[in-house]
Amino acid sequence: MTTVQSPPTPATAVRPRVVARTGLYALLAANVAAVTFFAADAGLGSGALVVLGRFAGLYGALLMAFQLLLVARLPWLDRRIGMDRLTRWHRWTGFGLLWTLVGHVVFITCGYAGLAGSTDPVGQLVDLAETAEGVLRAVVALGLVLVLGAVSARWARRRLAYETWHFIHLYAYVAVVLAFTHQIALGTTFTASSAATAYWYTVWGAALGAVLFGRLGLPLWRNLRHRLRVEAVVPESDDVVSVYVTGRDLDRLPARAGQFFLWRFLTRDRWWQANPFSLSAAPDGTRLRLTVKAAGDGSAALRHLRPGTRVFAEGPYGAFTALHRTRPDAVLIAGGVGVTPVRALLEELHGHAVVIHRVTAERDAVLHGELRDLAHAKGADVHLVTGPPVPDRLSARDLSGLVPDIAERDVYLCGPPPMMRAVLATLRELGVPQRQIHFERFSLAG
Q1: Closest Cα to residue 344, out of 40, 102, 1?
Q2: Is the pLDDT assigned to residue 339 strictly greater than 60?
């Protein structure tokens, strides 16, 4: 493929990830301050438990809106932070949301029960649900959040197919609507002043607008604009296949080497299934390429795609790009089929690069011929490391022997999770600064 060369990305002390992360922290802190101000200005009533409950509810509403922002897949945030980190933050924010909403219900119910001289908080909650507008909606919203929290636990997530987990998570939007209408009905800070009302409408409007833009509007617009289709399907080995995708005006698609898309191939039996596959060659303005190893029914079926098949792609996503360079030279470490974004990234990187490809046997070295030829053209070094998948196969001694100056380079890492964990530990042992280590895990959020 003929690559459209991106201009060199200069190493800079101002890291894009730090800028984006600091911006998110500042945004959240500013909104916490605003919520606190409007709550204090409105007055939260009598009784310590009631006051605590109302604060918990307000902060819970803010966390719910913040969660929507984290999974909106906004390009500016995704390119700088990465979907995997945003998803992880979304998960932990979700558990914070769960506890604030539980606290809201418990404190409010017990507080009102105490003010009424009752010792039956459950009865008090039932009475509020029957008599106060919006309370029943809030109880249903809490129930949905509890279910979502349960299926997000690690033990449950590992047992659920992604499609099942994703379908359940769609009920989060129902919970958002119910919580919002509850806030309108009973939120004293919502109606305390025109400024408070405008603030909360702005918060919810911005959060929901971000989701509609990033998850629906932008993907639809890009696919209508580019009209992607399968151009060719090329077997690379018995269980690896490359799919070439072409379309209109692909030079205007803001994809970079190292990024991935969520691909839907619109066949009769697979149109509903989205899979995250990295680009295995840098975008050249005329076609995109993904290279996939058969690991399940969905990936195995790609071998049988016909040229002309329509494609719906969401993305590009990911921060595994040259945007995050901090040093003039780099080390690219790939495990197995994790070489696909590494091979693409090598096309775009400037400066001297060392590529280390870790596989069980030489026959598993996907795209190694391409990688070797590309490295030769760019003056890079390639090392193929073979052997059983044991943690010490890329030990500190191995890496320092292959790349003596590794602590002075950017390190890009992609591969199976066990291999990545082992290599990350080795990089820490070798004293490679955290800011120079770049990796990304495929992680989808609902």
Answers
A1: 1
A2: yes
Tell me the CB-side half-sphere exposure of residue 243, using CA atoms within 13 A.
Answer: 28
What CATH number belongs to 227-317? 2.40.30.10
Round the average pLDDT of the chain to a whole number and report it.
Answer: 88
Closest Cα partner for 286 from 240, 232, 241, 322? 232
Q: For residue 130, which amino acid is it?
A: E
Please state which of the ranges 99-103, 182-186, 277-281 shows the lowest mean pLDDT. 182-186
CA distances from residue 220 to 62, 269, 286, 315 in whole angstroms, order as listed:
28, 21, 20, 11
In this structure, which long-range contacts are made by residues 66-70, counting pairs with CB atoms below 8 Å and at least 24 apart in sequence? 66/28, 66/31, 66/93, 66/207, 67/93, 67/94, 67/97, 68/176, 68/207, 68/208, 68/210, 68/211, 69/206, 69/207, 69/210, 70/445
DSSP letter at 159 equals T
For residues 187 and 123, which has the higher predicted lDDT (pLDDT)?
A: 123
Tokens of 311: 């494609």
Q: Which CATH architecture has domain 322-439?
A: 3-Layer(aba) Sandwich (3.40)
Average pLDDT over residues 99-113: 91
C-alpha span between 27 and 273 (Å, rounded): 35
Please tell me the distance from the alpha carbon of residue 294 to that of residue 302, in angstroms, as a whole number.
Answer: 8
Cis peptide before 121 (omega within 30 of 0): no
Residue 91's contacts (CB-CB under 8 Å, 6 or more residues apart) are 152, 445
> What's the whole-number mean pLDDT along residues 118-137?
82
Q: Where are the domains of the chain?
A: 16-222, 227-317, 322-439
**Other residues' Cβ atoms within 10 Å of the Cβ of residue 401:** 10
Q: What is the pLDDT of residues 248-272, one digit of tens each?
A: 999 999 999 999 999 999 998 888 8
pLDDT surpassing 60 at residue 377: yes
Helix axes 135-152, 162-169, angle to 10 degrees: 160
Pairwise CA distance, residues 357 & 334, whole Å = 5
Structure confidence by residue, pLDDT tens digits, 18-53 = 999 999 999 999 999 999 999 888 876 678 898 899
DSSP state of 399: H
